[in-house]
Design brief:
Length: 277
């Protein structure tokens, strides 16, 4: 029997994952901003679920929650950082508070929970950390820049982390959902639209329409996350959903082509006599 720590467990993908984890017989520390939203889980599964009200941006509260879970269940085997929101708006439109809140929830929250569980995982020389990123952690579209910046930050931190903790038997996986109807956008904050950026919103919608992305079944992701948990050597990154490869091939081919095209500037910056490869 494993013990999971899952943030954002009361709605969206997290709600499906919480139920699947408990149905298979594992222990679960489920967190949400309002612990009352988790009462159906405690009513149904009893002592195998610990429902915690938690604001992941509060580092002291995160540390206290992890301590409580370790005392209750004896350790945390799997951390799933799922809590987050998606700020919609052009970069110029975003307020200071909106930008900080986006980074606090989507980047600093996972950082604090990750730091809190690592000492126990290192002592046991085992553990899984699953970071819920996004296809927007790999590409960037107009009108979602700050949201995607938070995911790009999560990607970089997690890739470095994976190399740092592999020696302790700890695996890190970035989950990249593509398109799932979870109500995330509707429940997330929006900027005040500036008509000057109407074209950016139109470009976002056009990208979504032309991408070939197909809405997936949120409930089906539960079996995918359980499969990841049971995989002896899980991947650093995995897409949840289909038809994402064309967008990624275009993105990375374009990056390399652009860098190669402007390599004369790279050589200019390097200086003379240093070689060129």
């Amino acid at each position: 029997m494993s013990t999971w720590f899952l943030t954002g467990a009361s709605r969206g993908l997290g709600a499906h994952w919480a139920e699947a984890i408990l149905e298979r017989g594992d222990n679960l520390a489920a967190t949400a901003r309002d612990a009352a939203a988790l009462k159906p889980l405690t009513d149904r599964f009893g002592d195998r679920v610990l429902a915690l009200g938690l604001d992941v941006t509060d580092r002291a509260a995160v540390n206290a929650a992890v301590d409580e879970v370790e005392q209750r269940f004896g350790g945390i085997d799997l951390l799933v950082n799922n809590a987050g929101h998606m700020l919609h708006g052009a970069v110029e439109e975003v307020s200071t508070d909106q930008a900080r809140a986006q980074m606090d929830v989507n980047y600093f929250g996972p950082l604090w929970t990750t730091q809190a569980v690592l000492p126990g995982m290192r002592r046991r020389r085992s553990g899984r950390i699953m970071q819920v990123s996004s296809i927007g952690g790999l590409v960037a579209y107009p009108a979602l820049g700050i949201y995607q910046a938070s995911k790009w930050a999560l990607e970089a931190m997690s890739q470095a982390l994976a190399a740092e903790v592999a020696a302790f038997g700890i695996h890190v996986t970035l989950i990249e959902p593509i398109m799932f109807p979870t109500g995330l956008a509707a429940a997330s904050p929006q900027t005040t639209p500036d008509p000057a950026y109407a074209h950016a919103r139109e470009a976002l919608y056009a990208s979504a329409a032309s991408s070939g992305f197909v809405p997936g079944d949120p409930a089906a992701t539960a079996q995918a996350i359980l499969a990841l948990a049971d995989t002896p050597n899980p991947p650093l990154r995995v897409l949840f959903g289909v038809n994402g490869f064309d967008a990624l091939r275009t993105e990375y081919a374009g990056r390399l082509a652009g860098l190669e095209k402007w390599h004369h500037i790279s050589r200019l910056a390097q200086g003379a006599g240093s070689g060129d490869k």
